[in-house]
Amino acid sequence: MVNFSQKLLKWYNINQRNLPWRATDNAYKIWLSEIILQQTRVQQGMPYYERFISEFHTIYDLAQASEDEVLKLWEGLGYYSRARNMHFTARYIVTELGGNFPDNYSDLLQLKGVGNYTAAAIASFAFKEPVAAVDGNVYRVLSRIFGIKDDISTNQAKKIFQSLANELIPDKNPDVFNQAMMDFGSMVCKPKQPLCQECFIQEECFAYRNNEIQNLPVKSKKVKVKKRFFHFLLLEDVKKNIIIEQRSSDDIWKNLYQFPIIETDNEAMETTIQSQFEEIFYNQKLIDFQELTDYSIKHQLTHQQLHIRFFKSQINHRAANAIVPEDVQKYAFPVPLKKFLEKYYHQS
DNA sequence: CTCCGGGGCG
DNA sequence: CGCCCCGGAG
C-alpha cells in the first residue's frame, strides 16, 4: 500500500483524460471549469465550459455580463445557484480584489460557491499547493482501497478522508496527484461495475479482497420527496405574444423564467385550474381555455417530484408584459419548460 | 419508469 | 442538515 501513490501516478501517466481546462494554469478558467463540474459529469459540462470561455474570455467579461445572460448560458445545467454565485464572485473579484484571483486554499475558500473541494482543486491546479481535492471519486477510491466504513455524509468522515488524502498527496506535482485520483475514480473505480480486473491495486484493495465493493463507500441518505403540482398557462394576446415571468421567490429555479403558474397540493381538475387562473387575471376574459394534454410530464428533482401540466388560452387585447414567441430563446427556462417550448413551437 | 451520482449554501 | 438539478444507467 505504500506504493499506492506511485502506482496511481504511473497509471495516470498512461490513462489520463485529455480535458481542456487541464491545459492551462489560468485560475479563472480552472475556477470556471470546477464550478461547472460540481455535481455534473464531464460529458455534460464540457460544452458549457467551451461556451462560457468563448463568451467570457476573462473574469472581467464575466463580471460585466448581466445575471440573465449568465443564467441563459447556464440553462439546462441545473443547480442554478452555481451560476448566480459564480457571477457574484466574478464581480467580487473584479471590484474588491482588483481582478486578482485568490492564490491559496484558505483565501479561495472564502469565495461564494467555492467549498473545500473546489478550493483545493484550484489551489493545486493553478498554484501547485499540496492540498488534496476530495470529491465523490476520492471518497469512493479511498473507502474501497483502505476499507474505511465511515458514513461519508457525516462531517467527521469528511475530515478523516481529507486528512488521509492529504497524507497521500506528494509535495511535488500535487495537481497531477489530484487529477489522477479523480480520473482513476471515474474511469476504473466506478460506482457501479468498477473495472477491478484491470486495476493496479486490486490485490491490495480492501473492498476487492473482502467482497465489499458494492458496500463502499458507506453513504446514508434518506431524502423524502415532496410532490408538487404545477400548472402553466401559455397565454397569448391578440398579437400572439405570450406572457412570461421571472421566478423570484426562495424556491427552485430561482431567477429563471416561466409562464403564469398555479400550484396545487394535489391533483386538480381542469375547471379548478381555469377558475384560479381567472382569479389571477381577474380583469380579463380567458378565451378558449384548454389543457394541452400531450405535454403533461413528471419531472424529478432531488427532493421534489413535479407533476407538470400545460394549458393555453387567449386574451382579446394586447398584453404589456408579453414577448414574441421568437424571443423565448433569450430567456433561461428550466429544462421541462425548455422542452415544452421546443416541442410546442416546433410543431405548431 | 425509478434511481443514482455529484459540492456547496443558508 | 435540508435543499438545490439534470442526464444517464438500470
TrEMBL record:
It holds the Pfam family HhH-GPD. The keyword Iron-sulfur applies. InterPro entries: A/G_AdeGlyc_MutY (IPR005760), DNA_glycosylase (IPR011257), Endonuclease3_FeS-loop_motif (IPR003651), HhH-GPD_domain (IPR003265), HhH_base_excis_C (IPR023170), MIG/MutY (IPR044298), MutY_C (IPR029119), NUDIX_hydrolase-like_dom_sf (IPR015797). GO terms for molecular function: 4 iron, 4 sulfur cluster binding; 8-oxo-7,8-dihydroguanine DNA N-glycosylase activity; adenine/guanine mispair binding; metal ion binding; oxidized purine DNA binding; purine-specific mismatch base pair DNA N-glycosylase activity. Its EC number is 3.2.2.31. Signal peptide: none annotated. Its cofactor is [4Fe-4S] cluster. Residues 36-187 form the HhH-GPD domain. Binds 1 [4Fe-4S] cluster. The keyword Transferase does not apply. One of its GO terms (biological process) is mismatch repair. Belongs to the Nth/MutY family. Adenine glycosylase active on G-A mispairs. MutY also corrects error-prone DNA synthesis past GO lesions which are due to the oxidatively damaged form of guanine: 7,8-dihydro-8-oxoguanine (8-oxo-dGTP). NCBIfam families: mutY (TIGR01084). This is Adenine DNA glycosylase. It comes from Avrilella dinanensis. The gene is mutY.
